[in-house]
Amino acid sequence: MSAGCDGVSDRTETVLEQIKSAFAVGLPPIGHGLSIRECPSPVLTANPRRGGDLRFSVPMGGWRLGEICHNLGISVGGISTEEIKAMLKLFYAPNTCSLASHIALEEAGAAYATVRVDFSRSEQRQPEYLAINPKGRVPALVTDRGILTETPAILVFIAQSYPEAALVPLHDPFAFAQAQAFNSYLCSTVHVAHAHRMRGERWADDPAAIAEMKRKVPQSVGAAYDLIERDMLKGPWVMGDVYTICNPYLFTMSEWLEGDGVDLSRLPKVIDHRNRMSERPAVRKAIAEERG
Ligand SMILES: N[C@@H](CCC(=O)N[C@@H](CS)C(=O)NCC(=O)O)C(=O)O
Asked: Strands 146-149, 56-58: parallel, antiparallel or unpaired by DSSP?
């Protein structure tokens, strides 16, 4: 979905005032068009649109922006309030697995909003977020039909919702299952092995046991990556020449390799894949937005 700048109504300032009071935050004046981006603190800023799709990224609870606009009966950036309400909203935290879904949304050309969940303030365990995802984890994707969790499911949802982006072999049951098998392995084996480094308290109370789980991570994550390197990553992309939803997911996990203490020299294909991924505009954009 894209919208020109011309559609911003005269009531934009009124709307921003409403948003300001709704979130008790300060807003600078805006130029043509409207783009509302997240700031590190709970402050909204409005910037001139850089063209392309409407994006807004706001603090926790800010995803109600669409509803506020709807209640005010206005359109933002030429996009109808119904469209804003229907817009996908990704709850994410920087440097986590939610990056895979963020990249996939970009690759798909989806209209979406992002909402940062601040782990440093344990927002993932607060009632406000647990109402969105009772698992207390990111990612969570709010759709017009309900909320989705679990990265492999979200990635397939994105791929099927935007078939023109061809992010999965939709009409080839075997190839589709291969993509699912790869992503399932990342979700159920690689990610879980990685989590033993910082989330050992999920599985044990004894500090010695937690320390032991942490100590094992270079070995367990390394073994999983040996398999990916040797048997699963076809190259140049995961499934060969065709770019699929497996790639943002592998890239996201591969970003953790150094932290997990895995020897990169034994993973030339994985590192080549990571480097190539990091050049893609969608990847750059998602990362810049999460770190910005
Ligand atoms: N199986 C889930 C795992 C989600 C998950 O564990 N996310 C981590 C970030 S990578 C999280 O939210 N951790 C927060 C916590 O453990 O408190 C998926 O693939 O989406």
From this structure: unpaired
* Nearest-angstrom CA–CA distance, 140 and 115: 10
SS3 45: strand
d(CA 258, CA 98): 19
Q: Count other C-beta atoms under 10 Å from residue 272's C-beta.
A: 13
CB 116 within 8 A of CB 59: yes
The residue whose two tokens read 């992010």 is 167
For ligand 1, what atom is nearest to the CA of residue 152?
A: 19
- pLDDT (tens digit per residue) in 159-209: 999 999 999 999 999 999 999 999 999 999 999 999 999 999 999 999 999
DSSP secondary structure code for residue 255 in this structure: T
Residues whose beta carbon lies within 6 Å of some atom of ligand 1: 96-97, 124, 136-139, 150-151, 187, 199
User: What are the tens digits of pLDDT across the range 83-116?
Assistant: 555 678 899 999 999 999 999 999 999 988 888 9
Structural domains in the chain? 5-165 (3.40.30.10), 173-291 (1.20.1050.10)
Amino acid at 248: P
Can you say whether the dihedral through the CA atoms of 197, 199, 201, 207 is positive or negative?
A: positive
Q: How many whole angstroms from 108 Cα to the centroid of ligand 1?
A: 23
Nearest by Cα to 252 from 125, 111, 112, 106: 106
Among protein residues, the one whose CA lies closest to atom 11 of ligand 1: 137
Kindly give the number of the ligand 1 atom that is closest to the alpha carbon of 137: 12
- Listed residue (238, 240, 223) closest to 270, CA to CA: 238
pLDDT digits (tens, 9 = 90+) for 211-240: 999 999 999 999 999 999 999 999 999 999
Measured CA to CA, the distance from residue 130 to residue 266 in angstroms comes to: 40
Assign 269 a pLDDT band (cuts: 50, 70, 90). very high
